[in-house]
Amino acid sequence: MSNRSVTVQRLGGKGRGVVALRAFALGDRVLRAEPAEVSAERTTHTIQWDWHVHFVPAEPATYLNHCCDPNLNVRSSAEGGYDFLARRAIAAGDEVTFDYGTTEYEIVTEGPCLCGAAACTGRMLGFKDWSPERKARYGVFVADYLKTSVRSGRSGPTYE
Q1: In which domain, by residue range, is 37 found?
Q2: Rounded to whole angstroms, how far apart are CA atoms 23 and 51?
Q3: Which residues contact 62 (CB under 8 A, 6 or more apart)?
Q4: Which of 32, 55, 72, 86 is deepest in the core (most CB within 10 A)?
């Protein structure tokens, strides 16, 4: 399970993850998460696309792990998925990760966060639980639907 830029590998106690096969500079597109299956139901294997739309991403994106201090930013793509861009320089061999709160309003996974980052919050947080400082840190690099205030009867934070 790889493309020319990333591959899926076993990563010790975290299970599988996505690893860079080459170096990336700040802002480079590392990979795209495209829907393999669309659902109205949220699971631990889906990525949220809109207030009531979730999708199982095609490989290798299905193996992207969460990190509280990730090296990927997320940007909604016009094709109906997400582009993952280098948040900082990434070396060949580095695991590539994103903050699940950049796409998920609420997190369904319970239990402690396993990212190991110095800035780890101890548990994964959905966008609704983010502090104003955390929202400012990500700026525009969150799912487009999270930037709106109300969709289909569900209130979400105003975020610009």
Answers
A1: 6-155
A2: 34
A3: 36, 45, 56
A4: 72
